[in-house]
UniProtKB/TrEMBL annotation:
It holds the Pfam family PFOR_II. This is Ferredoxin oxidoreductase. One of its GO terms (molecular function) is oxidoreductase activity. The keyword Oxidoreductase applies. Residues 43-264 form the Pyruvate flavodoxin/ferredoxin oxidoreductase pyrimidine binding domain. One of its GO terms (biological process) is response to oxidative stress. PANTHER family: PYRUVATE-FLAVODOXIN OXIDOREDUCTASE-RELATED. SUPFAM superfamilies: Thiamin diphosphate-binding fold (THDP-binding), TK C-terminal domain-like. It comes from the Bacteria. Keywords: Oxidoreductase.
Length: 402
């Protein structure tokens, strides 16, 4: 007699079969598709049992927001509407999250800055919202081109910050972001960053699991605080007694909660390490004394630079950071233990990643840390430019034509 399975099959509102995060991310069969980063956002949201998304157009994330809207029409997203401004979007998405919804939204550049006040509020209210940030220029003169200076403004908002190198990373990180952010001991927002245009508008191969399976829906009753309850933290902290009073209790309450939010980010480490397959990725010669520490498109270009340096007889490697908050301190220390020179190539003018690397390697590495090359305002960073910087430091002839 054939054995009958007693396993209960659960479906979400869109009729997709609910599977475990591990199965969706690691075990489900995948097929190759050719798509842009914006389309990868749509495919990730399609498989994430999203309850609500609010959008506002700003280049280059407008297409991703539009595609999430298509998912609402198709029944994959519960609620979708356009806000009246970027600030309005981030406020409205917070309301959806406080009501117990799994939420995602997108922004870029000046939109990020216009909405800036909301991000510490997201963290302070411990809502596991996901923001897909397609970084673009914010400097004057105005630029709509790729530039990640805006990330530096988000570093200390109390949100987790992950950085995708390509469309495949972006797809996987969005799904993993919901899983990690919603862990009861974490339960803070996650900002998934990708370089605008370089990734959002270029096509590449992305391996996707079937679209008839999806993450389990969000269970707000597992959250570390009751949904829409003004009598317990953090809701109670937002009420007039704490906001208006100038006394020790008010000060201590605010300060202790700030530390708790940041402790929650630290508690995300083991989950992020699991679902991202490590907080860093290494490429190149493991014993190399020339090391590039980078994230996003700069990591991709650094990998090409490693290949060019091989032709020069120079061994090098890339340490790609997948997370910025939490910062992969121990992983970076271990990955750079043989380094004599560490280069930090960046798509911004101020070198915010170099500052982070210096901060965490202070008195933990004897390597020279060099914050070059840097490009800004939408300029590209050909791997030859990176190679040129290395050869100059090593006192070698620059053969590549730039």
């Amino acid at each position: 007699m054939a054995q009958v399975s007693t396993e209960k099959v659960i479906y979400n509102r869109a009729g997709q079969r609910v599977v475990s995060p591990d199965y969706l991310l690691f075990e489900a069969p995948r097929t190759k598709h050719f798509m842009t980063g914006s389309e990868a956002v749509k495919e990730a949201v399609k498989r994430s049992s999203v309850d609500a998304s609010v959008s506002y157009p700003i280049t280059p994330q407008s297409e991703a927001a539009h595609l999430i809207g298509e998912l609402w029409v198709e029944g994959y997203v519960g609620v979708y509407f356009r806000g009246e401004s970027e600030f309005g979007v981030m406020s409205e998405i917070a309301g959806c999250a406080m009501a117990g919804a799994r939420c995602i939204t997108t922004t870029s550049g000046p939109g990020t800055l216009r909405a800036m006040e909301n991000f510490p509020m997201w963290a302070g209210t411990r809502i596991p919202v996901q923001l897909v940030l397609m970084a673009r220029g914010i400097n004057s003169p105005l630029s709509i081109q790729p530039d990640n200076l805006e990330v530096s403004f988000l570093l200390d908002t109390g949100c987790m910050i992950w950085y995708a190198e390509n469309a495949q990373d972006l797809f996987d990180m969005i799904i993993a972001g919901f899983v990690v952010a919603e862990k009861p001991e974490v339960h803070v927002p996650v900002i998934t960053v990708v370089d605008g245009f370089f990734v959002s508008h270029t096509r590449e191969a992305v391996m996707l699991p079937p679209d008839d399976i999806a993450l389990p829906p969000y269970d707000p009753y597992k959250a570390p605080m009751p949904v829409i309850d003004a009598e317990v933290p953090p809701g109670r902290f937002l009420r007039d007694p704490f906001v208006m009073k100038s006394n020790y209790i008010s000060y201590a309450t605010h300060a202790s909660w700030q530390f708790e939010v940041r402790a929650a980010i630290e508690r995300s480490r083991p989950y992020a390490k699991h679902y991202l397959r490590g907080l860093i990725e290494e490429f190149g010669d493991p014993e190399a004394e020339i090391v590039f520490v980078a994230c996003g498109t700069a990591a991709a270009q650094s990998k090409e630079a490693v290949r060019l340096l091989e032709d020069e007889g120079i061994k090098a490697k890339v340490v790609k950071l997948k997370t910025i908050r939490p910062f992969p301190v121990e992983e970076l220390i271990n990955a750079t233990k043989n380094a004599k020179t560490i280069f930090v190539p960046e798509f911004n003018v101020v070198g915010w990643l170099e500052r982070e690397v210096r901060r965490y390697l202070y008195k933990r590495s004897d390597a020279d840390i060099i914050g070059t090359p840097r490009v800004a305002g939408g300029m590209t960073m050909p791997p030859e430019v990176i190679v040129k910087e290395v050869l100059k430091i090593l006192g070698k002839e620059v053969k590549h034509v730039i």
